[in-house]
Amino acid sequence: QVQLVESGGGLVQPGGSLRLSCEASGIIFPADHMGWYQQAPGKEREFVVMLTRQGSTNYADSVKGRFTISRDNAKNTVFLQMNSLKPEDTAVYYCYIRTGSNVYWGQGTQVTVSS
Predict the structure, then answer these.
(1) Residue 41: phi, psi to the nearest 5?
(2) pLDDT in tens, the chain (115 residues)
(3) Count of alpha carbons within 13 Å of 73, Cβ hemisphere only?
(4) Taking the mean position of all CA atoms in its chain, how far away is CA 17?
(5) Please, is 67 exposed, middle or buried when counting C-beta atoms within 10 Å of its C-beta (0-12, 13-18, 19+)?
(6) Pick from 4, 44, 3, 45: which is nearest to 22 by CA?
(7) For a Cys staple, 71 with which of 53, 76, 78, 84, CB 3.0–4.6 Å?
(8) Angle of CA points 45, 89, 110, to nearest 5°
(9) Among the residues of the chain, which ranges form H helices?
């Protein structure tokens, strides 16, 4: 049974930083694709960043230069370092893992950027 457990969300002031973690179990790590989506209130879930098994990355334009994805294979964990946070980054952040044709999602972690 595949499980993704996220942590690290919270309330932060504009300009601040947070690091999200997503620990995977029941799956061979690293997977084909791993990454993060965000869903703001009243909006569709949107792509944030992707990391392939080979180490290639793709970022949404809105987070380029501010967010960084990384992983720790020994801990089956993928991270999202978020710097220079803006109020518009406020959302629930979901990690995902894709292996073959299967996609698995975490439960989401709330990030609120507000003064």
Answers:
(1) -55, 130
(2) 899 999 999 999 999 999 999 999 988 878 889 999 999 999 999 999 999 999 999 999 999 999 999 999 999 999 999 999 999 999 999 999 998 899 999 999 999 999 9
(3) 10
(4) 14
(5) buried
(6) 4
(7) 78
(8) 70
(9) none
